[in-house]
Amino acid sequence: MEVVNQIIFPVPDLIESYNREAKGIPIGRAAEVNLRNNHSQYIFTWYGLSLATSIMLWMVVRKNPNEAMRRVCQNRNW
User: Fold this and answer.
1) Are 17 and 11 in contact (CB under 8 A)?
2) How does pLDDT run across 42-63, given as a tens digit for each residue?
3) Which DSSP state fits 11?
4) Dihedral in degrees, nearest 10, Cα atoms 6, 9, 15, 18
5) Whole-angstrom distance, CA of residue 66 vs CA of residue 76
6) For the segment 28-45, what is each residue's pLDDT rounded down to a tens digit?
7) How far apart are the C-alpha atoms of 10 and 3, rounded to whole Å?
8) How many CB atoms lie within 10 A of CB 6?
9) Domain ranges for the chain
10) CA distances from 12 to 2, 16, 19, 33 (A)
């Protein structure tokens, strides 16, 4: 079995032989995910944006056509 290990893993203990700490290379650690729970802030943000864009759409739809738009409509029918 020792012969098979020497064939598969020719360099014994590669990580220890690399000696990262002596060279000043930082040793990594497992990633830590830290998600904050801001659901109420997200609700106010997205519903506020939705309300604002709905009001802007309503203002555009109810607006009377201006002079340039009336001229364009008249020129299509000539």
Assistant:
1) yes
2) 899 999 999 999 999 988 788 7
3) S
4) 70
5) 16
6) 778 888 888 888 888 999
7) 10
8) 11
9) 38-78
10) 12, 9, 13, 34
- Residue position matching structure tokens 């650690």: 29
Closest Cα to residue 42, out of 50, 34, 30?
Answer: 50
Location of structure tokens 């830290």: 34
What token pair was written down for 1?
């079995």
pTM > 0.90: no
| H, E, C per residue of 38-67 | CHHHHHHHHHHHHHHHHHHHHHHHHCCCCH
Q: Which two tokens stand for residue 25?
A: 């290379």
